[in-house]
Write a structure and sequence with these properties.
There is one protein chain. By secondary structure, this protein is an alpha+beta fold. It has a domain of 92 residues. Helix content is 26%, strand content 13%. It is built from 16 helices and 18 strands. The strands form seven sheets. It has a four-stranded antiparallel β-sheet with strand order 5-4-6-9. Strands 2-1-3 form a three-stranded antiparallel β-sheet. The chain has a three-stranded antiparallel β-sheet with strand order 12-15-16. The chain is globular, with a radius of gyration of 26 Å. It starts with 14 loop residues before the first strand and ends in an 18-residue tail after the last strand. It binds a DNA duplex (25 and 25 nucleotides) through helix 16, strand 17 and strand 18.
DNA sequence: TACATTTAGGGGACCACAATGCGAT
DNA sequence: AGATCGCATTGTGGTCCCCTAAATG
């Protein structure tokens, strides 16, 4: 069962645009990405035919199916029989390629056995070249070009040229391959993620010391969507998070009954603290009434950010080592790799919501703690797990590997949550950058090449 | 070296309105 | 319990403006 186009909501989606974070049918892909020069530069790829949510990076010749990295690994990385399947790299593209262009990029593009019912394939052949196309003297549609004057096809050097490899091993990274003179420099999405086989095939063995060295809060993804991905456990119910030790067990904290009371001075009034981090997971927490604050501090760099972010609510004083405490500022700052869980509690009851899931929690769920005390303790962040903890070391290792993998492929492009809104904004007229009412005089029309005054 | 001025860069605010969320019916 | 309605909120991009840090005199 496929998914419908994010834009028209009617046609079956076939391509994925990372920039728009949208799955589009071919027709809408063309319409959306022909709007302006910038949108033409969006790198798109086929949609994974298995999960229908991620861009496909390989095509299995045996199964005749396009797969994203994850599905590829699931299908080929774990099965010895399937691991020998011939697979072909799927190149991404930008610009507004014609049907012939697309078929040249994806030789199999007109041969989707599992999508025969879709009308998009027909569109591929019938796709009209609209406003951006020209017709030559022979009445043939010419290929749309992007700002640089050419349809960009991003390949992956030699492996992409030959296009085929076998086995379950990782796709060779671009950097390990000879430079391809044809490769357009600076084109988007040229470095596809390295494939990992968690466990024995992981090219970088999990190493605790290395782990914390690699953590950099600056690169943390602030999305709770990572929960399942990172921990390998589905958070079916927010209560699960708070049961069995709740966040404490998740974070591997220990009893903080003897914690520095200075932390208790950190009180927020009405506030939303947006981000709480723990290693590979990040929480989006909303504190309903400022009764409780949770902070996780990983490294000095992030500590600074944390202070700045919530200084207005007084947490700075709480997480900074108090003068009365034996932990000096130096020791705090030198303890870069040790996360701190700082929980403050003003009242016994508060509402936490985790990404929309409201959680009723009681004071017993958390213990007051002191950041500086944590520092003194010097406990590693991954404290021994409770026996009943769902997060075994194996799961954790998997989570760490997933985190590392994601870290390598992470991009900091602006995420567009609603492609339809973006499309609307892209064509909306403005005055000095500001949207103006329809019908009002404007000085900038995104749809026109030149400004109108 | 200390201070004042200039320059460069970053980030937030602003705008309209369709999409979305959510409570009430 | 599900459907419908109506109101409030959200999110989108280009430009301007303010603030801070760095550079210069």
């Amino acid at each position: 069962m496929g998914y419908v186009c994010d834009f028209c909501g009617e046609q079956r989606s076939m391509v994925y645009c990372r920039s728009d974070a949208a799955s589009l049918c071919l027709s809408c892909d063309r319409n959306v990405h022909s709007a302006n020069a910038l949108s033409k530069r969006h790198s798109r790829n086929l949609l994974c035919e298995r999960c229908n949510s991620q861009p496909a990076i390989v095509r299995c010749a045996e199964e005749r199916i396009s797969l994203c990295q994850n599905c590829d690994w699931i299908g080929h990385g774990t099965s010895t029989s399937a691991s020998t399947h011939r697979r072909q790299t799927i190149n991404c593209y930008s610009g507004c390629p014609s049907a012939s262009e697309l078929s040249s990029i994806w030789s199999f593009v007109l041969d989707f056995p599992s999508r025969g019912e879709s009308t998009c394939e027909q569109e591929l052949g019938l796709m009209s070249i609209a406003e951006n196309s020209t017709t030559n003297s022979r009445g043939e549609n010419t290929i749309d070009q992007n700002a640089s004057g050419a349809v960009e096809v991003n390949d992956r050097h030699e492996i992409a040229k030959s296009g085929v490899w076998h086995g379950s091993s990782s796709i060779p990274e671009s950097s390990s391959l000879p430079n391809n003179p044809d490769q357009p420099t600076g084109s988007a999405n040229t470095s596809l993620p390295k494939l990992y086989c968690p466990g024995t095939k992981c090219p970088v063995p999990y190493d605790d010391a290395n782990l914390y060295e690699e953590f950099n809060m600056d690169e943390m993804d602030l999305s709770l969507e990572n929960y399942e991905e990172l921990f390998g456990v589905t958070l079916n119910n927010s209560e699960e998070l708070l049961e069995n030790g709740g966040i404490d067990s998740l974070f591997g904290t220990k009893d903080m009954s003897g914690a520095d009371s200075n932390c208790r001075g950190a009180v927020a009034s009405e506030l939303d603290i947006n981000a709480y981090f723990w290693d590979t997971v990040s929480f989006l927490c909303q504190i309903s009434n400022g009764k409780r604050m949770i902070g996780v501090i990983l490294k000095q760099e992030w500590l600074v950010d944390f202070e700045v972010t919530v200084s207005s609510v007084g947490l700075v004083n709480a997480i900074q080592p108090a003068s009365s405490n034996a932990a000096s500022a130096d020791s705090m700052m030198s303890n870069k790799t040790e996360p701190i869980l700082c929980l403050t509690e003003k009242q016994g009851h508060s509402n936490l919501s985790f990404s929309g899931l409201n959680v009723e929690s009681t004071a017993a769920d958390y213990q007051d703690c002191g950041a500086s005390s944590m520092l003194l303790m010097g406990e590693p962040p991954w404290c021994p797990q409770c026996p009943e903890s769902p997060f075994s070391s194996a799961n954790r290792s998997d989570a760490v590997m997933r985190y590392k993998e994601k870290k390598k492929t992470r991009k900091f492009e602006k995420k567009v949550r609603y492609a339809s809104r973006k499309a609307r904004a892209d064509v909306r007229r403005r005055v000095k950058g500001r949207f103006v009412k329809a019908g009002d005089a404007y000085d900038y029309d995104p749809l026109s090449q030149t400004r109108s005054f």
